[in-house]
Amino acid sequence: MTSSADRHARHLALAGRITHALTQRAAMAEAVGIMRCWQSCDAVQARRDLVDNGGGVDRQDAEAARVTALVDALADRRADPDWDS
Predict the structure, then answer these.
(1) Which of 6, 10, 22, 69 satisfies CB 3.0 to 4.6 Å to 2 for a cystine?
(2) What distance separates the 2 farthest-apart alpha carbons in the chain?
């Protein structure tokens, strides 16, 4: 029989993994949207372009983060009401 503290610790660890996975998925979706606009392509081609550099999932996540950071760095915060302050 596991203690309540053990269950709580497992739930916290699971919540952390879910949060990490959702954060990665959101970053990839944002990067795909950016690539679609930049290249006038569909989502399949945009995702392919993000992963074609090789390196698997880790590389894909890094490329998505790089594209998003580039757009964020160039964004005019005053012109975008949805920008996180």
Answers:
(1) 6
(2) 57
